[in-house]
Amino acid sequence: MKELYIILIIIGVVVLLSALIAPAIIIPYKVSKKVYLKQFVRINKEKWARECSDTTNEEQVIMFDYSLKFASENKDKHQKLHMVNDNLNLYADYYDFGFKRAVVLCAGRAECSLYALYYTNPYIKAGYNILSIETRAHGDSEGKINHLGLKEYKDVLKWIKILHDEYNMDEIVLHGICIGSATLVYAITDEECPSYVKSLTTDGLYKDFKSTLVKHIKDTGHNAFPCANFILHKVSKDAGLNINKFTPYNLADKIKIPVLMLHSKMDKFSIPEKAQLTFDKMTSSPNKKLVWFDKGAHSHIRINNQEKYDEEIIDFLRGING
Fold it and tell me: What residue spans define the domains of the chain?
């Protein structure tokens, strides 16, 4: 009988612990999965479509309206380009102004190629045609998951080759915003990156995605652990690369072309101090410059500092072109 009591007590303890522990595991898992699906998975074509990503943000609306106006005013110079990579139909907006050089614009998560047209002005003034990429799972491009550049950078390399081989662009420069900046860092440090890629301009480049993700999660009122760990593991598994190791910071010393980093002191997500560390590690870049701006939220530097933003890009391009 004594043994029976002991067994019953043990069963009771196990049941009690299960009741206490299960919610502590299941609830964070459900929250983590919900955040992942919302932020990184495209469930239908309406999500991350060719429209303004945040109509509640006044600056975002102004930027997107500028892009729409640019597209409308330059219809005669526009071509919708298509390619297939990784079994996905991918698209880009190409504007031919008659130059022999081109810039590839790469926007961040949730943004279509139209959005990136907001950054065309300094490049046209400097003598560059425009290719704005519709990254996979955005706009008209196929795809379900945003891999934060871990797969998308291969698409960029193919777009670059198309510009050179089919559109006879002698030189190509790159401009990225947020995740687009990280994507381009991955592209230029890949062994397949061609020598006719001459420079990179980044807007809000982060040191690593983990620190940015943790800040985003905390801002939504959730605990970073275990949500961030779940998402980072899921992204890494989907992409086949460890996003904690494959970071702009870890690749910074492999960058061998000129780099212009544009960064806001107000950036809450691509933390300024960590941006400085990434810049300092670019020891192999033959010509690098980090420009700080006092105003502008993450990805909203130009709208708060348009003249300086554009001048810095034009001066930088003039410097690398001699």
Answer: 41-208+247-321
Please state whether 299 falls in left (phi above 0), alpha (psi between -120 and 50) or beta: left
Residues 6 or more apart from 311 whose CB is under 8 A from it?
122
Which pLDDT tens digit goes with each residue over 297-315? 999 999 999 999 999 999 9
Tokens of 260: 């212009």
At 53-87, the pLDDT tens digits run 999 999 999 999 999 999 999 999 999 999 999 99
Q: Which residues of 102-137 are buried (b: 16+ CB within 10 A; e: fewer)?
A: bbbbbbbbbbbbbbbbbbbbbbbebbbbbbbbbbbb
Give dist(CA 109, CA 36) in Å, integer. Answer: 13
d(CA 262, CA 202): 6
**Residues counted in the chain:** 322
Cα–Cα nearest to 150, from 250, 46, 230:
250
What CATH homologous superfamily does 41-208+247-321 map to?
Answer: Alpha/Beta hydrolase fold, catalytic domain (3.40.50.1820)
Token match 């045609």: residue?
A: 129
